[in-house]
Design brief:
By secondary structure, the protein is of the alpha+beta class. The chain is built from two helices and four strands.
């Protein structure tokens, strides 16, 4: 069965939010979702605000990431969560 590579963008509520805490909580939720984190990156947005971009792999049998997105959006100081890219990986 194939794996998918998912890119998830997490937007904090303000530039003053603790990105490390948000990122760690999101990583735990990805792991609980049976995802394997491949890369984490901070992306500048505007006026000091940075988003957290997490790239992870998961089994395509899992289907949608809606449940995971919902869980991450409930993390304190998270304004929004969106999947920005999904690619199928064979191997």
């Amino acid at each position: 069965m194939a794996q998918v590579i998912v890119t998830l963008s997490i937007m904090p509520s303000s530039p003053d939010d603790d990105l490390d805490a948000i990122e760690e909580s999101a990583k735990e939720k990805i792991k609980a979702f049976d995802g394997e984190l491949a890369k984490s990156e901070r992306k500048p947005v505007a006026f000091g605000l940075k988003s957290i971009e997490l790239i992870f792999t998961m089994d395509e049998k899992k289907g949608s990431t809606d449940e995971l997105e919902s869980e991450i959006s409930q993390i304190e100081n998270v304004n929004s969560v969106s999947v920005t890219d999904v690619r199928r990986m064979f191997g």
